[in-house]
Write a structure and sequence with these properties.
Layout: H1 2-35, H2 40-63, H3 69-89, H4 93-98, H5 101-156, E1 174-175, E2 178-179, H6 185-188
Antiparallel strand pairs: 1-2
Helix pairs in contact: 1-2, 1-5, 2-5
């Protein structure tokens, strides 16, 4: 039955934020393309590919405790600048068609990365809060609830409120008539 919980968690914390942030990047790129009088069918495929990369990277970046921004931003800039150099150096019909779509798709990629990073950070904060609450509950159980339960059980059984204290064998080296483990033989034999 646990697999249903895993499926639900992967949908809610994996696919849905990825899909929403990637779709947001595509919509942003297509809207900017329409403002610049570019056909959405020319912009959307490139924008979706870029937004998917941005959403995936953003989710990992936001959910991580490590400082990955120093590695992600240069990687994005290298990707964009390398693509721009290749795009403008090669004169081909395919790249001519994408020449105006790639800057819009890049904007969509950055928008998806930023929104996914915000969602990833919220997921990380929630996970940390759950872990902190769990530790607090465990501590309360060990320090408050367990001693109270023990006291109630001792009261129900008619035992004294406190268990007899073990003095560590200083007064006598026997327990129940048997020599205590590790006691010197002279004391254990009564010498």
């Amino acid at each position: 039955m646990y697999y249903l919980q895993y499926i639900k968690a992967s949908l809610l914390f994996g696919f849905v934020p990825f899909f929403l942030t990637a779709t947001g990047g595509v919509v942003l790129a297509c809207a900017a393309g329409l403002l610049l009088r570019r056909a959405a069918r020319d912009v959307a495929p490139v924008a979706f590919a870029f937004a998917a990369v941005g959403a995936t990277t953003g989710l990992f970046m936001g959910a991580s405790r490590d400082s990955v921004v120093g590695a992600v931003v240069p990687a994005f800039l290298t990707f964009v600048s390398g693509l721009a150099v290749y795009q403008f150096a090669k004169h081909d019909d395919t790249f001519e068609k994408w020449r105006f779509a790639i800057p819009l798709a890049t904007a969509g990629m950055f928008a998806a990365a930023v929104s996914a990073a915000a969602f990833g950070a919220a997921m990380r904060k929630h996970a940390e809060q759950v872990a902190e609450d769990s530790a607090r509950q465990r501590l309360r159980f060990e320090k408050v609830e367990l001693p109270l339960e023990l006291a109630n059980l001792r009261k129900q059984l008619g035992l004294p409120p406190e268990a007899p204290k073990d003095d560590g064998g200083k007064d006598g080296d026997t327990q129940g008539g048997a020599p205590r483990a590790g006691a010197p033989k002279e004391k254990a034999e009564g010498k």
